[in-house]
Amino acid sequence: MNLIITCARYFELETSQELQGILENLGDLKPIITITDMSGILTVKTKIDAIEVVRKIKEMVLEEPWCIRYSLRIIPIQKIIETNMDSIENGISEIINLLSNEETYRISIEKRNSNISTQELITKIAKKIKNKVSLDFPDKIILIEILGKNTGISIIKNTDILSIEKIKRGISE
Q1: Do residues 95 and 79 make contact, with C-beta atoms less than 8 angstroms apart?
Q2: Average pLDDT, 10 consecutive residues per value, the chain (173 residues)
Q3: What is d(CA 73, CA 115) in angstroms, rounded to the nearest whole number?
Q4: 79-156 adopts what CATH topology?
Q5: CA dist., res. 99 & res. 116, Å (int)
Q6: Per-domain residue ranges for the chain?
Q7: For the whole model, what pTM was predicted?
């Protein structure tokens, strides 16, 4: 997977169909869209760069706000690993070069179907990073999305995560 999509509960099928059409329009005729066993969560494997998909969908919503009806958030994932402390720690180490020395960061963890300690995980990862922390306005977010046995990680800008609701609210203001 290189995208995690959230939607309202019980609208996973409609969201899957919506994503299929969007990704086909963007040039991926065979994306792999999986409705997870977690209510309101889908995963997508697309050949298109995940951050590029988010950027293009954001442009679509700004042009035509109601072209997206079911997807709520679209989250790019750069690496998939097994859900355990060591794998997550090693996975972050492998992509930490996406955070330059001058950039501030925040660690954000979303856990679903997992009992890993959030605080312990944040502490372990933060010990390895020399950069300054900025909880309110970080240059980059170290994103850890735990979905049961699999975890997606990314080091991205806050603007790389698409919240359809926030965009639509911004348009109406």
Answers
A1: yes
A2: 97 98 96 97 97 96 92 97 96 96 97 95 95 96 97 97 89 69
A3: 23
A4: VC0802-like (3.30.2130)
A5: 25
A6: 3-78+159-172, 79-156
A7: 0.93
